[in-house]
Amino acid sequence: MPITIQDALPAAKILESENIFVMTQARAIQQDIRPLKIVILNLMPTKIETETQLLRLLSYSPLQLDIEFMTMETHTSKNTSASHINTFYKTFSELREEKFDGMIITGAPVELLDFSEVDYWEELCEVMEWSRHNVYSVLHICWGAQAALYYHFGVPKYTLPKKVSGIYDHIVFAPHHPLMRGFDETYRAPHSRHTGVLQEDINKVPELMILSVSRLAGVHIIANKNGRQFFLTGHSEYDRDTLAKEYIRDVKKGLDPEIPYHYFPNDDPMATPPFVWRSGASLLFSNWLNYYVYQQTPYDLKDLDFI
């Protein structure tokens, strides 16, 4: 089934070239079904790239999705044109009266700042509080996960001795949890971050449960036991070359980064990285949409229960 997006969104041509079914809004209104309403708060600087990555994963589900993009009013993007933001994004003020089946809050390159130092922190807190009452299930990614764990449960983040960057093996702790259905006992996923959360802090919160952990990268997937919130510390949505682009960027900045772990063949930055996390990422997003959005939300979102 298709995802419904605005007709001129740049991701549309890329996805169509990959034989992924996207439906324009003009065609979608002729469909006699209710699509799932998903809002994506995109905090990443490379917004068009992130849009494509997330839409690709969402499109693997057989469900029809109606996608909105949200932007922060209290922050001006330096890497994406104002024209793109004004055309394809809505502000929180424009969306606050709406309800959604699902929401994704992305990562952001602000992890070395204290939460209160982020220029849009107060607005983000307002959005996260709003999500408890206006969204059935929320998927938080990387810094977005750290921010939500801190805001909702007081779980702190810690600066790591060195950046966690690469492709890491993970062990599934809860194989019978619906989000992990179909996963192998171990799977791989990308991480790219300077900060992290600790397993012992999460274990202190009775509402939370850890679904998977990496021996080297730490906790990966955390669930609120009520199914309304999920927290991913990594970047399962990343493309094959995303870590390579980040590595080259940091080299050009003179930051002397370490080569991403278990990513380039023979640690050769000129070699093409194997794409070994795509199936797990697809399964993760499909399970979330199926078990925690489609099967749980009421047909009429006005009947949405609150946390």
UniProtKB/TrEMBL annotation:
Q: Which domain of life is it from?
A: Bacteria
Reply yes or no: does the keyword Secreted apply.
Answer: no
Q: In which pathway does it act?
A: Amino-acid biosynthesis; L-methionine biosynthesis via de novo pathway; O-acetyl-L-homoserine from L-homoserine: step 1/1
- Which annotated residues bind substrate? 163, 192, 249
Site feature (Important for substrate specificity) residues:
192
Which one of the record's GO molecular function terms can you name?
homoserine O-succinyltransferase activity
Q: Where does this protein chiefly localize?
A: cytoplasm
GO cellular component terms attached to this protein's record? cytoplasm
| KW Transmembrane (keyword) present | no
Primary role: Transfers an acetyl group from acetyl-CoA to L-homoserine, forming acetyl-L-homoserine.
PANTHER family with a match to the protein in the record: HOMOSERINE O-SUCCINYLTRANSFERASE
**Name by which UniProt lists this protein:** Homoserine O-acetyltransferase
Q: What is the lineage of its organism?
A: Bacteria, Bacillati, Bacillota, Clostridia, Eubacteriales
Q: Please state the gene responsible for encoding this protein.
A: metA
